Amino acid sequence: MSTSDGYRVGVVGGDGIGPEVVAEGMKVLDAIGANLDVTPFDLGGSRYLQDGTILPDETIEEWRSLDAIYLGAVGHPDITPGVIERGLLLKMRFDLDLYINLRPFIAPGHDFVVVRENTEGPYVGEGGVLRKGTEFEVATQGSVNTHMGVERCLRYAFELATTRRNHVTMVHKTNVLSFAGDLWARTFEEVAADYPGVETAYNHVDAACIYFVQDPGRYDVVVTDNLFGDILTDLGGAVSGGIGLASSANLNPARTGPSMFEPVHGSAPDIAGTGKANPLAAILSAAMMLEFLGEKEMADRVTKATYEVRDHVEGKSTSDIGDAVAARLA
Ligand code: IPM
Ligand code: MN
């Protein structure tokens, strides 16, 4: 797999079940004969506990010349929530300008994809705290929405719809979040005008939660902000065969640097080392990586093999499931 002239891929196994599921993804990439030049990076909560390293700027600089990053999961039960998430995952998304988080959901009766804005909203970290720990404590947490950021996300969603079933639903909460919602709604109209062949719909996020469960077949492309997208995509996973199948691509569509591919699930420290982790989400994320790298035919074969295996994972170990997918590619 490590031939020269291959796609340069950085691999971050990370914490918990991350390295286990990534190993199965690599097994499948090997089985299909993907020409990759792989560099592993030891990052995540475990590394942080060893020497305090989270994600140095030099590593980000090194990554800029890669074609893709393949990531398992990061997060450690002994570390304060937010340290690794903000310092590693969000830093990666922001510094590499991975402004689209693409999350497909396919199950009997539906086939839709969520386009989640990935660099703005409440994730930016605007806000602060005053008089912490006193009864007068004040905490604010703003949501940052720029016309440029919203527009490029919406434009991506419309472009994507033209390659699918020509339908885009925007999800927001315009009835309450009237500043951000108004920017999103006006920009949606603006961009939609450039795509007369694409039908549009709008759902408030609370209503979208009902439709995700009761009528997901109505959706083709769903586009939404960073936080709504985070929450809705866990729900999307839950109604599409479980989080064990939910894959994602963090894309820099301008290709000014690498894009990053990771399963939606976390590091699941409770089952780490037991062989119980389902690697299919990581394998589907590897297929998304192949597609973005231009290997559509390989990507389709991996995706098809994964969906063939999905109903036969009961009682199988992580590596048995990886073997079953790999065997279908030989
Ligand atoms: C996800 C995760 C992350 C997010 C966390 C770990 C920061 O939940 O990728 O959906 O909120 O984006
Ligand atoms: Mn999430």
Tally of helical runs: 11
- Supply Rg: 20 Å
Series of secondary-structure elements, N-terminal to C-terminal: EHEHHEHEEEEHEHEHEHEEHHH
Instruction: Write out the distinct hetero groups bound to the structure.
Output: 3-isopropylmalic acid, manganese (II) ion
Poorly predicted tracts of residues: none
> How can the largest sheet be summarized?
10 strands, mixed
Number of strands: 12
Summarize the structure.
With 330 residues, the protein is an alpha/beta fold. Helix content is 40%, strand content 22%.
Q: Could you explain the architecture of this structure?
A:
The chain has about 325 residues and is α/β, with parallel strands linked by helices. About 40% of the residues lie in helices and about 20% in strands. The protein has helices spanning about 20-30, 45-50, 55-65, 85-95, 145-160, 180-195, 205-215, 225-240, 280-290, 295-310, 320-325; strands at about 1-15, 35-40, 70-75, 100-105, 110-115, 125-130, 140, 165-170, 200-205, 220-225, 245-250, 260-265. The longest helix has 16 residues, at about 145-160. The two termini are about 15 Å apart. The relative contact order is 0.17. The protein binds 3-isopropylmalic acid and manganese (II) ion. Manganese (II) ion binds near residues 230 and 234.
Which characteristics define this entry?
330 residues, 12 strands, binds manganese (II) ion, binds 3-isopropylmalic acid, ten-stranded mixed beta sheet, two-stranded antiparallel sheet
Topology (SSEs and partners):
Elements lengths: L1 E13 L3 H14 L4 E5 L4 H7 L5 H7 L4 E6 L9 H13 L4 E8 L2 E8 L9 E4 L7 E4 L5 H16 L4 E6 L5 H16 L5 E6 H10 L6 E4 L1 H13 L8 E5 L7 E5 L16 H13 L3 H14 L8 H10 L3
Parallel strand pairs: 1-2, 1-3, 3-12, 5-10, 8-9, 8-10
Antiparallel strand pairs: 4-5, 4-11, 6-7, 11-12
Helix pairs in contact: 1-9, 1-11, 5-6, 7-8, 9-10, 10-11
